[in-house]
Amino acid sequence: MKEDQYEEEEESWYSGPAPECEDLIEDESCDTHLIEQTEKGFRCAIDVPSVLYKYIIGKKGETRRRLEHDTRTSISIPKQGVEGQIVVTGAQKSAVSMAITRLEILIDSFRKKQPFTHFLSLPLNQPQIQQGFLKFKEDVLEACSQDHGVEESIFQNPSKLHLTLGTLCLLNEAEVQAVGQQLQQNQDFIRELTGGKPLELRVRGIEYMNDDPAAVDVLYAKVCEKHGSDKLQLLADRLVEQFVSQGLMQREWDRVKLHGTVMNTLFRRDSTAEGSGSGGKSREAFDARNILKTFGSFDFGDLQLNSVLLSQRFSSDCSGYYCTAAAISFSPTQLS
């Protein structure tokens, strides 16, 4: 692979080991990957999404060359855009082990900088909830459109009403498939918890999460079970705990917040806020005081929830909801 393919990518920041660390080759070890012995030495291959190759190579190949020099190994990377494995070879097993360890540190650091691509969602877009949401939107615009920042474009798309359990960064199809399989492993737990039946939910009331109701970025609809059960909360917490424990998801709260976004300044068409921080632009908050006062207990309606979905960000299926990469149904014969 030609290094100049990546010339325009990010500057290299890897500066190699400090002088006092140069003798650590014999001590560093890699316990997560198989290092094979070959006729010429040792070899280890690791799966890395192609979108991360550019960070490992660095501008004009600088990062890769420094890693190779510091660990006395050779690092082979597939061509740009080709999914495959990065292969490390070296004369000493300990050298290959150290190179793999440092590659994993780099990969983990750069992965955390990527925007999330998928999320675990509970769809709230059933017809009765969409109708309630459209009524809420109409009433808010009629009563509060004079309040700062309140305008039509910051309302959620009714087809995409949902509750987010947690977000994931999945950088190739293999990672999507692996997480889908992980989700499926919860099938028995979920059906046991729900009794194999949909959960009866109520969407009623609104809330915000920052300290100043006069400057709000997101307004949420509250979601709860109609009969006071805590099955939904248990389901949400169990799924998130599992994905967090495996390093697939970041924990945001001690318990999952059961709410669905109804207004968000990320949606605003105003050029001063488009992209939310993208290109250095800031979001324009809105004054939610009158909305909270007038519509604080607004009833969006009831629904039957029958699935947990692995949804793809920035996508739409034929119904207008996010494209589904994997799903679990609560009842054995139905998937909503």
Strands, helices and their partners?
Layout: E1 36-38, E2 41-48, H1 53-57, H2 62-71, E3 73-76, E4 84-90, H3 93-112, E5 118-123, H4 127-144, E6 162-168, H5 173-184, H6 187-194, E7 199-207, E8 218-225, H7 231-245, E9 259-264, H8 289-295, E10 299-305, E11 307-312, E12 324-329
Antiparallel strand pairs: 1-2, 2-4, 3-4, 5-6, 5-11, 7-8, 7-10, 8-9, 11-12
Helix pairs in contact: 2-3
List keywords for this structure.
single chain; 336 residues; alpha+beta; Ribosomal Protein S8, Chain: A, domain 1; Cyclic Phosphodiesterase, Chain: A; 2 domains; four-stranded antiparallel sheet; 8 helices; 28% helix; 23% strand; elongated; AKAP7-like_phosphoesterase; KH_dom_type_1_sf; RNA binding; ASCC1
Number of strands: 12
Cα Rg: 24 Å
Number of helices: 8
Strands side by side in the biggest sheet: 1-2-4-3
CATH fold-level name of the largest domain: Cyclic Phosphodiesterase, Chain: A
Give the integer mean of the pLDDT values: 87
Can you offer a commentary on this structure?
It holds the Pfam family AKAP7_NLS. InterPro entries: AKAP7-like_phosphoesterase (IPR019510), ASCC1 (IPR009210), KH-I_ASCC1 (IPR047538), KH_dom (IPR004087), KH_dom_type_1 (IPR004088), KH_dom_type_1_sf (IPR036612). One of its GO terms (molecular function) is RNA binding. 28% of the residues lie in helices and 23% in strands. It is elongated, with a radius of gyration of 24 Å. It is α+β, with helices and mostly antiparallel strands and 336 residues long. A hairpin with a 7-residue loop joins strand 3 and strand 4 (84-90). The longest helix is centred in the N-terminal third of the chain and has 20 residues, at 93-112. Helix 2 runs antiparallel to helix 3. It has eight helices and twelve strands. 30% of the residues are buried. A four-stranded antiparallel beta sheet has the order 1-2-4-3, with helices on one face. The protein has two domains: 3-112, K Homology domain, type 1 (Ribosomal Protein S8, Chain: A, domain 1), CATH 3.30.1370; 118-329, Alpha-Beta Complex (Cyclic Phosphodiesterase, Chain: A), CATH 3.90.1140.
